[in-house]
Amino acid sequence: MNDPMIAVQGLRKSYGRTAVLRGVDLTVRRGEIFALLGPNGAGKTTTVNILTTLIHPDGGTATIAGADVVRQPAAVRRSIALTGQYASVDEFQTGEENLVMMADLAHLPKRTVRRRAHELLERFDLTGAARRRVGTYSGGMRRRLDLAISLVADPQVLMLDEPTTGLDPASRSQLWDVVRSLAADGTTILLTTQYLEEADRLADTIAVLADGQIAARGTAAELKSLVAGDHVRVSFDDAASVAAARGLGVAGIEDAELDEKALALTFPSAAPVRAIRDVLDRAESRGLAVAGVSVVKPTLDDVFLALTGGRPAPSTTSTDTTTADTTTADRSAEEALR
Amino acid sequence: MTTTLAPGARTAPATTRTRAVRAPLRDVATMTRREARRSLRSVDGLITAFALPVLIMSAFVVVFGGAISGGTGGEYIDYVVPGVLIMCLGMNSATAAIGVAQDMTTGTIDRFKTLPIFSLSALWGHVIASVVRNLASAAVVVLVALAYGFRPGADLGDWLGFAGFAVLAVVTFTWICVVFGLVLSVEASMSVSMIFLFVPYLSSGFVPVDTMPEWLHGFAQHQPFTPIIESVRGLLMGAPDASTIVTACAWLVGFLVVSVVVGGILYRRRTAR
Fold first, then answer.
1. Residue A23 and residue A59: Cα distance in Å, rounded?
2. All CATH 3.30.70.100 domain ranges in chain A, comma separated
3. Which of A265, B6, B77, B93 is close enough to B174 for a disulfide, judged by CB 3.0 to 4.6 Å?
4. What ipTM does the predicted assembly reach?
């Protein structure tokens, strides 16, 4: 029961002279949401294609529910479903016809085919559009149908290759909810993404794929702690207070980075709560005007930048972080690199 | 070990042998239904299948017929119908190249390949739907030809022979197009029909080979469309020639075997990129 659902060891794949995967290892437990995070070209899709039996690896092994992807592809196909980068649904068929087709291909007993299709239409909020051709669907509806199609055969392992690329924020969060509920029901999910926020919000375990290798893995919190500790940010009412604050004798504050516009100092701290208390106590006794204090946690952007040495893809990742956080994040990532 | 049963495991256990036959047949039937829907719902496809053949027939009979007739020893319409038929069957088969190319680029074929189904069922679905579409199209062409004054000499046996020969031709043409669809982009796949539009002109389909310039004789006499069209002509005129039909079938079966083998390899190797 505790056997991993997905076990990958030393996976290698080259196209011509280009090594796309250079020894990838990963393990995914039953019911886990596992995110493979990486920039374009890192080898995410190649990994998924190998795990779904679409291409053969040059070296290494991969098993799904105990079946080897190269030697037992038929057994692997019985336990997986793939939702690719594009919504692979037929525009010339209706939503219902697409689902019935996949139920037939899953060899469901004929009398249950239609019932299964209707269950999934209901679950994915597509009942009203069931008899419309998919060509008339919105992007979000197509993605939902795409996911519904993947679930027709009740797969043990669901592979989602960049499932929310091109979706608006509302559709994206709707899709995340579905993925979470699937995992709660015991489906193992491997998803690839270039969106840090997606990995952070959705995944139990994240593996950062960079340059054909796993650069780091862990929970979002573990990955963040790998890169940099917490920072303390203190802002003041006037420039004189900022200048004086450097002499407060709090660990790290003398070298703090100055944000002149915001009149704020930011510095790394191993004990941020204590640092904040010290700053407030000493500032009060010296009459310095403190406007605000905060602990700045590192974001996955830091991890991504530090590990991949590249920029995260332009995305909505920073929507729920403040500008100040992002500035700090960039800086601490650079520090981690040094 | 498993908590979630695969649906296959839930099905009442049929004997292994009946399942081994029935499952692939169900897969092919499902894929054929899919392609039939695509054909019926695509305006382009319907035009290629039904309007274009009628227009080509009209062009040859009404527009060119007057000028060409005389050189063919009888009514030109009786001479040209087999050529038009084969040309239309070819162009109509080429629609499959576009369908396969679309399935490749949208990742649909990738998804089919990750299913525990008969692996070539998606391609056979294209081929069988193409046969049905083409037989309907051929029936329309023959009816229009009859309306224009075509007077075939075929008896029932000849007609059945023609139907069987047409099925073999369409299966072969479509498999060739499927191979093109697996390697070409959607845009490029649209020009596959040009093969079937132009190569038949360089055969005995529209004018007798001896009226062409001499340097073309070698190619025109020996290229596959000549025995294929001559076979149809013989059958429709009620005077089938066994050796011509054997030559035509040899060409068709040869192309078919190569296309199925190459198509099977490409289908397994290529993924959407």
1. 8
2. 227-337
3. B93
4. 0.84
